[in-house]
Amino acid sequence: MPTVKVTQNLYRFFPVLKDRTITVPPGSVAEILQAMNEIAPGFTDYILDEQGALRRHVNLCINDYTVIDRDRLSDVVPDDGTLFIFQALSGG
Amino acid sequence: MANMILLGTRKGTLLFDRTHSAWRPRAILHEGIPVCYAASDPRDGTLWASLDHGHWGPKLSRSSDGGRSWKEMASVKYPQGARYIVKYLPTPDFDPASPAGQPEYRDATVFKIWTLAFAGADQPGRMYAGTIPGGLFVSDDGGESWELNRPLWNHASRGGDLFGGDATSENHWQGTPASIDYGVFEPGIHSIIVDPRNPDHIHVAASSAGVIETNDGGRTWKGCNNGMLMDYLPNPAAEWGHDPHCITGCRKQPDHLWQQNHCGVFYSEDGAQTWKKVSMPDAGVHFGFPIAVDEHDGRTAWVVPARADSERMALGGALSVVRTTDGGNSWQSFRDGLPQKHAYDIVLRHALDVAGECLCFGSTTGNVYLSEDRGETWLCLGNNFPPVYSVRFG
């Protein structure tokens, strides 16, 4: 089962994700984000825009590799893989 | 009498309560999150904040208990298939030939929920939201759900209905520099005025397009830019392409509308059917962002002068508020209580409000000032607030 690791900045909005190991069924990034949305309702609204594309300042990595398909989220997370969900740091 | 001031700031929402001796700020809410607009629904006192998350998309937050607790509401979303025509940012690498060729379409996503407006008591639950990239959204259930107003989105001035196909007319809506924060140059709706006499009569203002009106509750829209003049396109009196920074209307005399435009101050006494330029540069009345109008007297309005579009700062290193009581024929400047040296503040379009005798404004330098005598003298409410995006009495 793939693991999902989430930037701790999202714990503020989704405390259900805090202090736990999150595992979800394997699949595409799109499928995994939908599984996250079931654990934390509203989660995808933070990660994706209304067209289903990754928000501009959100970055996803599968293990060491940055997700390539930011529009359709077709990259596949392998059974033993980890999907990392980051935010770009900016501003002041 | 207003008992609350709501500030939308770069670091959260600030509420001030009127006490017997002073206006007192509470601890900041939505801590650390930019709040581009905060307001109270005059119908029931519900508080609203538009959160401008840099990373996670814009959200709306609502409080039904006077600000003690807040609930995140459903996001305002463009429906599938909503598209618009890209206007390019006029940067040095801008290719002027490109927009003149085939239109380039972009799927719509909400960058910013720039303003909120509340319908009258005869339409409980009806709210409006203006967004970048230029969509007007409507809710009939107190903000639980939102729907794009398609007739305005599909207006001929934006290229027609792009849901089903290509443009059938030329897009005249230009971008607003306020969208550059998001890496785009898209239009935005920042002002929505519901006629207190007739809820189907609404004016909205879009940068950079102009003022648009519906008389049938949003089924049809027409431009209301007669008399407007601009100085950055070849035809100053073109129907479209104007940059109203803010429009506002008199509640008791709704045909009296005021507009602080990029190119001056304009006044209408016929419900925006015609506009008259009432700038008076010698009095500092020309460039700026916000404008406020008296609730009862449509000829009385206030502006906070700024220097110029190329020099966005206070005039002469000093802050002033300028008032007209005769429909812009004359203007009187007030400075008592405002800094007159080393002040470089800019007051953004939603950051001035009036309620009865009280006015309040906040600047991007984090200074907030209050007047309780119609703008004639001012009291500083603090100098170290975050940059202020909006000020509204509640």
Structure overview:
The complex is a heterodimer of chains A (92) and B (394). Chain A has a single domain (3-87), classed as Beta-grasp domain (Ubiquitin-like (UB roll)), CATH 3.10.20. Chain A contains two helices and seven strands. Chain A has helices at 29-39, 43-47; strands at residues 3-6, 22-23, 27-28, 58-62, 65-66, 76-77, 82-87. In chain A, strand 4 and strand 5 (65-66) form a beta hairpin. Chain A is globular and about 30 Å long. Chain B has a single domain (34-393), classed as YVTN repeat-like/Quinoprotein amine dehydrogenase (Methylamine Dehydrogenase, Chain H). Chain B is built from two helices and 32 strands. The model of chain B has no long low-confidence stretch (mean pLDDT 94). Chains A and B meet through helix 2 of A and loops of B.
Q: Share of helix among residues of chain B?
A: under 10%
Give the name of the CATH superfamily of chain A: Beta-grasp domain
Under CATH at level 1, the class of chain A stands as Alpha Beta
User: The biggest beta sheet of chain B, please?
Assistant: 4 strands, antiparallel
Figure out the total of helices of chain B.
Answer: 2
| Overall geometric form of chain B | globular
What is the averaged pLDDT score of chain B?
Answer: 94
Beta-strand portion of chain B reads: 35-45%
The CATH architecture classification of chain B is 7 Propeller
The count of strands of chain A amounts to 7
Unreliable residue runs of chain B: none
Structural class of chain A: alpha+beta
Radius of gyration of chain A: 12 Å
Low-pLDDT regions of chain A: none
Widest sheet, order of strands of chain B: 3-2-1-32
Helix run count of chain A: 2
If interface size is counted as residues with C-beta under 8 Å from the partner's C-beta, which chains form the largest one?
Answer: A-B, 19 and 18 residues
N- to C-terminal distance of chain A: 38 Å
